[in-house]
Write a structure and sequence with these properties.
Layout lengths: L2 E2 L8 E11 L5 E11 L9 E4 L4 E7 L2 E2 L5 E3 L3 E4 L5 E10 L9 E5 L2 E5 L19 E10 L5 E4 L2 E7 L4 E12 L6 E4 L2 E8 L5 E8 L8 H18 L7 E7 L6 E2 L4 E5 L12 H16 L8 E2 L5 H21 L4 H28 L10 E2 L8 H34 L3 E2 L1 H15 L19 E9 L4 E9 L18 E8 L5 E10 L3 E7 L6 E4 L8 E3 L4 H10 L3 H26 L7 H12 L5 H7 L5 H5 L7 H18 L1 H10 L10 H19 L5 H11 L3 H14 L2 H15 L3 H12 L6 H8 L9 H14 L1 H4 L5 H14 L3 H8 L10 H15 L6 H11 L2
Parallel strand pairs: 2-12, 18-19, 19-21, 22-24, 25-31
Antiparallel strand pairs: 1-23, 2-3, 3-9, 4-8, 5-6, 5-9, 7-8, 10-11, 11-16, 12-15, 13-16, 14-15, 17-18, 20-21, 25-26, 26-29, 27-28, 27-30
Bound molecules: arginine (ARG) and zinc ion (ZN).
The site of arginine has 13 residues, from strand 20 and helix 2.
EC number: 3.4.11.2
Enzyme class: hydrolase
Family: Belongs to the peptidase M1 family.
């Protein structure tokens, strides 16, 4: 069944308060729920009260103190309907659930020896019957009871009211959350943890307690998380004037978790991978990801919790906005304390990484069977819509408003949004209205009418650029034309797509790379528009879409030497990087086509060789930025641009290019390696992290080219590394590019050294699973390893997802075994954890765009999945959309 946005109906009752009493145990937990329900006078539907409930056993039901007989209510697999409810009533429901049997990790579940909840989007109904939708907001009072020895800590949202001992070794804790919230923000944690605490004050001087809970034995891995949390607190105060509103803020690390983390009010629950880190166990990338996810969840306290979503179609209201906020947080942290030029390049590095992520995950989504607007119009299973589109493209849409309004007006719009909607469940329109109000304070003639189309239309718009120059009139005209054909579900609908409002930030350079006119942001709002630039005496090279000012594709017939000019001289760090990537991508596509036709690798293109070596020699540039300039575009990004995607051909040319560059520039690469060592104490900050990125990139080129010194250098680094970033870089190079004498001992050694640390074991698994040496047979061997389990999502991601998504050679092996392996795993996972299975099923999304031999085989496997007799709604939606293309 399909749920449609236009079918929204308000819930006919208010539920101002809910009191929950838990008798917690892994096998059988009893929940007693006391609801106060009030009929809404303004909404008249039936008199029945319909509550959601799944996988629950009903024990008893009372309405206003009277036990209900079976004629007074109706219980189904998914709902509990209470008939003839008076205008104001008290309902007491007692039921049970079975956390130890819950492998979906939605609702109340067991992880290790602990109990955790995950309620977003629809997990609360797996704990007790309730109006499990975000527009029903209640004040929660929660009593938790459990065995003290099994569950010494009992946590829920808000403030701890009291704790006491009970008989028979049991104890109790009572929590009260003073803020009304939807059920998806409810949380319970029970278990035995170590806790890092920090007392601090908010900007207005209120004392608050910050806590990070994690497994016993990990107390030396939570310092960075706590520091990140405090930085997030300070940043939201200074940049947005938003303070923590509770006396206590808790983060708990869970080993088994479907996603990254969850912003439950005052009690954030995190995938342990985004909490635990120290220099010995975590890489620079891990440190940065932790800071960013901690920021993200913390920022949800305002954008998501204080102002929440009316229904799940509005998910991007909180997610797009909060991703934008976490990206800005990371950029500000990266730039903090640096001199202006270094700060700009640190920001550019962050922007490059965010844009790469968008292009690798969202662009393909936007042209595949799951394409949807950032505010979807329909869905079958909402868990399938926690997508790159809702999150990353959603953040780009917010960023465009920030670009159009400017920092000051954007901030005024945010203030106005909270002034209007604090405590409410609202829509994306409400957000845009607040922003439009702020825009019109200084520019009354402007509006966001056309801009709103970003919320209604899917697909990545293509902007073609035409540039004309008249040397006599010294006039340059730039014409932008946009186009966005119907994608995904749009194809079946008769709606004509409207133009988007697209900010295109542009510079014009002369042939020495100097700016010919000040940078401008053109606002394209119609199908086609033209702008005129005067006093331009020579034909300029346009620097287009600076800072990636809009999530679009740019079509401009750049000459090779224009790209070379931009890649050497553009003073916008983003477009400078982009020009180098464009050169490499164009050449890679041409080489891949040639490879496919006559299995021959043509000489490395001189333009690519030249621009690459210029970046290698540009020692005045920041190391982290230089590492981005010197990275050959990932195969996936290149494949994505081909009319008929040929993964093995692209992999082949990418390997050859890296080999050749490594061979030709060995001496400089060795110098670069030596010049970027980071001796002394480890710090994850952008300076040293950038140096490590550059140094380790140099090492991979040397390894790829089989340079005689490379193996030694890599082995030495592997053995003597003083941090996990360097150790992992060397380990990956040995496994992926080393000879067979090198890689087996490295694999054994690494496992022996780190088998006690689950997150490092995940790194071990994923390095092996993504190695070009690993085919289905080797992978099956890996899955027989005693440390492998299908029950732990992080492990499944490290092995199964890493193989299917990051091991081009293994997954696309010509015998087709990789595809068969994939469908096996989708089906196996579907019986355990539908949300994870559906995510893996999306590997098949792009089947129709591959070269025919790949396409046919993927299609056959999709059909195999689709015709499986029992399939979750999650996976069914993904494969049926893929097949209905
Ligand atoms: N709101 C969480 C976050 O972005 C994600 C939770 C998603 N949950 C899920 N079951 N898909 O921060
Ligand atoms: Zn989020």
């Amino acid at each position: 069944i399909t749920i449609r946005r236009e079918d929204y109906q308000p819930y006919p009752f208010l539920i101002p308060t809910i009191e929950l009493e838990f008798e917690l145990s892994a096998e059988r937990t009893q929940v007693r729920s006391r609801l106060v329900v009030e009929r809404r006078k303004d909404v008249l539907i039936s008199s029945d009260l319909i509550l959601n409930g799944e996988d629950l056993t009903l024990v008893s039901l009372e309405l206003n103190g009277v036990v209900l007989s079976q004629t007074q209510y109706t219980l189904t697999e998914a709902t509990l309907t209470v008939h003839n409810v008076p205008d104001r009533a008290e309902l007491v429901i007692v039921g049970t659930c079975q956390p130890a049997q819950n492998t979906s990790l939605s609702g109340l579940y067991v992880s290790g020896k602990h109990l955790f909840t995950q309620c977003e989007p629809q997990g609360f109904r797996r704990i007790t019957w309730f109006a499990d939708r975000p527009d029903v907001m209640s004040i929660y009072r929660v009593t938790l009871r459990a065995s003290r020895s099994e569950f010494p800590l009992l946590l829920s949202n808000g403030n701890l009211l009291q704790q006491r001992e009970l008989e028979a070794g049991r104890h109790e804790a009572q929590w009260h959350d003073p803020f009304a919230k939807p059920s998806y923000l409810f949380a319970v944690v029970a278990g035995d943890f170590v806790c890092r605490e920090h007392h601090t004050r908010t900007a207005s001087g209120r004392e608050v307690l910050l806590q990070v809970y994690s497994d016993v034995g990990t107390e030396d891995q939570t310092e960075w998380a706590m520091e990140s949390l405090e930085r997030a607190l300070r940043w939201d105060e200074t940049r947005f004037g938003l303070e923590l509103d509770l006396d206590r803020f808790m983060i708990v690390a869970a080993r088994d978790f479907n996603m990254g983390a969850m912003e439950n009010k005052g009690l954030n629950i995190f995938n342990a991978a985004y909490v635990l880190a120290n220099p010995n166990t975590a890489t620079d990338g891990n440190f940065q990801a932790i800071e960013s996810v901690i920021g993200h969840e913390y920022f949800h306290n305002w954008t998501g919790n204080r102002v929440t979503c009316r229904d799940w179609f509005e998910l991007s209201l909180k997610e797009g906005l909060t991703v934008f906020r976490d990206q800005e947080f990371t950029a500000d942290m990266m730039a903090a304390g640096l001199p202006a030029t270094e700060a700009a390049s640190a920001r550019a590095v962050q922007r490059i990484d965010d844009v790469m992520g968008l292009r690798l995950s969202q662009y393909p989504e936007d042209r595949g069977p799951m394409a949807h607007p950032i505010r979807p119009e329909s869905y079958q299973e909402i868990s399938n819509f926690y997508t790159a589109t809702v999150y990353s493209k959603g953040a780009e849409v917010i960023r465009m408003m920030h670009t159009l309004l400017g920092e000051q007006a954007f901030r005024a719009g945010m203030d106005e949004y909270f002034r209007r909607h604090d405590g409410q469940a609202v829509t994306c329109d409400d957000f845009i209205n607040a922003m439009q109000w702020a825009l019109q304070q200084t520019a009354p003639q402007k509006n966001l009418d056309v801009f709103r189309h970003w919320y209604r239309q899917a697909g990545t718009p293509r902007v073609s650029v035409q540039l004309q120059h008249d040397p006599v009139a010294k006039r340059c005209t730039v014409t932008l034309t946009q186009d966005c054909p119907a994608v995904g579900v749009e194809k079946a609908s008769p709606i004509v797509k409207q133009p988007f409002h697209i900010p295109v930030t542009l510079g014009l350079l002369d042939d020495t790379g100097k700016s010919l006119s000040p940078q401008v942001t053109l606002e394209l709002k119609e199908a086609s528009q033209t702008w005129v630039f005067d006093n331009i005496s020579t034909r300029p090279t346009p620097s287009l879409l600076r800072n990636f000012s809009a999530p679009v594709l740019i079509d401009y017939a750049y000459q090779d030497q224009e790209l070379a000019l931009l890649s050497a001289h553009d003073d916008n760090a983003f477009t400078r990087w982009e020009a180098g990537q464009e050169i490499a991508s164009r050449k890679m596509i041409a080489l891949a086509q040639a490879w496919r036709q006559h299995a021959k690798f043509e000489e490395l293109d001189p333009l690519l060789a030249k621009s690459w070596s210029a970046s290698l020699l540009a020692k005045d540039l920041d190391a982290g930025y230089r590492a981005r300039l010197l990275s050959i575009p990932p195969s996936h990004a290149v494949i994505e641009r081909m009319a008929h995607m040929d993964p093995l051909a692209v992999l082949e040319v990418r390997t050859r290019i890296r080999e050749q560059l490594g061979t030709t520039h060995a001496a400089t690469l060795l110098n670069t390696y030596q010049a970027n060592l980071t001796p002394g104490q480890y710090s994850p900050s952008p300076g040293p992290a950038g140096k490590r990125a550059l140094k380790n990139l140099a090492l991979t080129y040397l390894m790829a080219s089989k340079h005689p010194e490379a193996a030694n250098l890599t082995q030495t680094q592997f053995r003597h590394a003083t941090n996990m970033t360097d150790r992992m870089a060397a380990f990956t190079a040995l496994i992926h590019d080393g000879s067979s004498e090198l890689n087996a001992p490295a694999a054994t050694q690494f496992y022996e050294d780190w088998q006690h640390d689950q997150l490092v074991v995940d790194k071990w698994f994923s390095t092996l699973a993504s190695s070009p040496r690993t085919g289905v047979n080797e992978l099956t061997g890996l899955m027989a390893h005693p440390a492998f389990t299908m029950r732990n999502p992080n492990r499944v991601r490290a092995v199964v997802f890493a193989f299917c998504m990051s091991n081009t050679r293994g997954f696309h092996a010509q015998d087709g075994q990789g595809y068969h392996f994939w469908s096996d795993q989708v089906l196996a996972l579907d019986a355990i954890n539908p949300e994870i299975a559906a995510r893996l099923a999306r590997v098949g999304d792009q089947w129709a765009r591959f070269i025919p031999e790949v396409s046919q085989r993927l299609h056959a496997q999709l059909e195999r999945i689709a015709t499986h007799p029992t399939l979750s709604r999650n996976t069914l939606e993904i494969v049926s959309k893929a097949l209905s293309l």
